[in-house]
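Hi support team,

I submitted a single chain yesterday and got back a structure, but I'm not sure I'm reading the token output correctly. Could someone confirm the output below corresponds to the sequence I sent? I've pasted both exactly as they appear in my results page.

Thanks,
R.
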Amino acid sequence: MAGFRSLARQVRDPRCDLALRRYSLRKCLERFAPYGHRATWDHLCSRAGFGPEDRSPDPARLVAALEELEEARSVWLAYEVGFAERRRKEKHDGLRRPGSVDDWHRLTWGGFGVAWCDDPRVHPDGPLAEVLRRLISALEREPGSVCPVCDGERLVWKYDLDHEPSTGPVCTDCGILVPRPVLTPDARAAARRGRLLMSA
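Hi R., thanks for writing in. Yes, this is the structure output for that exact sequence:
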């Protein structure tokens, strides 16, 4: 099975058939898809200027989408390296029990669904790398009460998400499943109350 970098080479290779280049970009999302496969694909298509169902997009647009994905992947891989180093140091210092960020990180290792968007058409508008930088920054500071990506205040608790965890606070502005560790207990409780009010 091809890795991310070899798939990226196929996307860039002008000798490859256009269908293969598009297919290779889609396959890259099996290795790294911050919003989930479908939402990340929709995001890349809209940012690069071709339709999700376009079977023969402009090769330059495919490469532009790949470049955005690669930049975001670099941001996430750097975070994972730092995370692993921190855990090694904590274990060396006798801290064996992982915290809530560690529990969340275990579910997102590799970058799949780190900013999960259950509705593939609702996702942040900005560049993927910037979204991940904001999310990482929120994970490294004290919990807050708003969405770490868009500063949205309308968080609603949703159930039966097509992701793990399958429940949690979703930002109604940008669509991400907000990682629980970045929110205060009061913000999580308010999101739950919002869910109860909406279903009443």
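A quick pointer for reading it: Residues 196-200 have pLDDT under 50 and may be disordered. Let us know if anything else looks off.

Best,
Support desk
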